[in-house]
Amino acid sequence: MDALPFDVGGFIMATMAVSIILPLVITGAVIGVIVWAIRRSAPPSEDPAVTELKSRLARGEIDPTEYQVRLRALKQDD
Q1: pTM of the full structure
Q2: Per-residue pLDDT reduced to its tens digit, 25-45
Q3: Least CB-packed of 3, 32, 45, 55 within 10 Å?
């Protein structure tokens, strides 16, 4: 019984490769889904120009009318 129907050494190596690679792929997929879910649930970041405009209004550097005009101009650029 010298001849086996398949290569036992190759089968063992393939099994070892799958047993090492599969957990890494599954772990990577789980981490990817977690990162995606966290980024999706985070509130969207506000435009820095709008933040600065709000700060200028709060400091009294511009009046509410000028704030509305500038905010409308910023929104039109989007």
Answers
A1: 0.51
A2: 999 999 999 999 999 998 888
A3: 3
Q: How far does the chain reach from its first CA to its final CA, in angstroms?
A: 76
CA dihedral 10, 12, 13, 14 (to 10 degrees): 80
pLDDT of residue 20: 93
- Which 8-state DSSP code applies to residue 60? T
Cβ(71)–Cβ(53) under 8 Å?
yes
Q: How far apart (Å, rounded) are the C-alpha atoms in residues 48 and 21? A: 43
In the numeric block, which tokens belong to residue 31? 């981490």
75, two tokens = 């929104």
Q: How far is CA 10 from CA 1, 7, 78, in A?
A: 18, 5, 59
